[in-house]
Fold:
Amino acid sequence: MATSVMTKVRQRMATEAGAPDPRQRQFAVLVLVAVVAGTAIGWLFDLHTPALLAGLTAVFALVASGGQSLRSDLHRFAWFTPALVLVMAIGPLASGIPVLAGLLVAAVVFGTGMLPALGEYYRIGGQTFAAATIVATTTGVGGDQPAWMLFAAAGGGAAFALVLRVLVGLSDPTRATRVAVARTLLEPGPGVVELAASAWRADGSSTWLGQVLAGASRFRAARETLLAQAQQSDRTEAERLRAIVAEADAVAAELATAVRSRACTGLPPQARRDPAQAVLARGGRQDLPAALQGVNEGLDRIRAAVVRRDDTAATPPAPGARKERVLGAVRAHLSLRSSLFRHALRCTLAVSVGMVVVLLIDDPSASSLLLALYVVLQPAARDSMTGALERTGGAVLGVVLLALVITTVPGAFLLVPLVIGGMLMNMERLRTDSTALLGCLIVVTVVDQAMKLDRDLVNVAISFAANTAVGAAVALIVGYVSYLVLPSSILPDVRGSVRSTVWSVSELLRSVRAAGRGVDLRAALQSAHVLALRRTQDLLGMPALLDGTGEETDDDRATRSAAIALDALRQDVATLAFRPEAERAVAVPALRAVDDMLAGKATATVPDVPAGSAPATELLASSLIENALHARAAIDRTLGYDNPWKSYTISFVRTERLHIR
Structure:
């Protein structure tokens, strides 16, 4: 056990190459010193509550505003942290005014529940802010402190988070962006390029990283084409094509190492080799597939960009892109037809009922009720109640075990600084797993409040466990009743949803093509984007509805893959719509090829994407092809076709009026 823990610690303290990472060690030392100092000050000067508030504020700030380059993290920190400090300071004060506290929690839960429509980092920030609001307003932490102390503690925690992020990132501010871009050369599958492109744009859009992304997108599109052609070939040819792909992946892995490095004076021989040569040397057919040209062009583009490293900014998007994105998300999801809206409303109703229950109980042991409720109704699950029973059991069992620890282990109060330190050391896990974040918050609040109650610890433990069960039961009951009241899809039509999503994405794609030819389709383009956004978001929530109590099935995986690929495709097309008009011609061949693939064409080819001085548009053009290939393969599996690349027909007859009511 101890050996396993030490091994994991050493891995966290090392770089990807296995060498000691001074940044991680510096981060660990700062966290350790801060936790020890905060615990000592809280113990000696009876300031444990302000120290706890400061620690929680630091955790929330780092979870919500971290994860990318120093520049983009500081930008998110600038607009997120003031709101966080405000809610962490005002929340305990508002808890004395039940109506105000209830309205604050309900408004925040509903608003943050809609943020996933804007992207992954908005989803993380929204969930974190909702958790912070619930902790500050409903758990009683800080309720005995004056206003000035609450503001000082929250501000101090935010300042510590800022210092920690700056000190760790100052030596290599763009490291996270390079790692994200390098990941496109290592991880196949839809959505990888979109996440890397988002990190690249947030970090200033340097030309050389844009060229790497353009080359990687070209490489990935050609790679997926070779794999698709292998599915349609006989056994011998399929093995040859897969061998070429394996050699190309090995070259790409070498280039990924060069991309991650801070500087590059030259490439090793392994990164410069031709992927096809080793396969041709083994004998067999000597003719090369046409898609291999795309592989080589993509790798050559990456090689040139990595060595030259032009740090000038790439061409920015056309003005109005962010505004249209936000307005499109609002129009798409402020409707009961949107599964995201329905789930945000469901969470808000459950939290409101939970607030009423907390007021009726009027006991400090109810501090875990709202957090347990929020664990059960995870915001990202959209329409799903599947897995809620498992989360309910996990929450109640966890609090019962925690209660046993509190009643039997001396010095249980030390769990609070230990958990806070563990949260600070596991930021990446907390960003990707909201259940882990909420579980840690339950531990912290239960231990903190239990230590303050002047009652027998056994009774305290029973009270916390019972109230946690009440919160989980409220979530289950309200969630189930809302299914009967709100329009939902208890028995989802998977094939129909996939077909309607393909139709909406194709409509958006055709609108962008028409707009690129000079046709004035502003209103139609907006409506097409709204409809495609709603359809892809609904399809993204479909796997949660299908997910049973057992393991994920092939149908679930196919639906999930189709949803991710179509949503990534929708993001690419929507982003392309706001590229400068002079650059859009670069993507015309790709748009035409994607339209053919989604419409059921039974062949996979990589169109020629001109390589010029527009890396942002080039990467979109190639990413369109890759995501269309992923989507097409997933669509085949979802529709139940045994033979890959079977010709099918999606009806593009307008089955509904293209406007949002």
Summary: Residues 648-661 have pLDDT under 50 and may be disordered. The radius of gyration is 26 Å. Residues 119 and 475 are 26 Å apart (CA to CA). The chain has 27 helices and no strands.
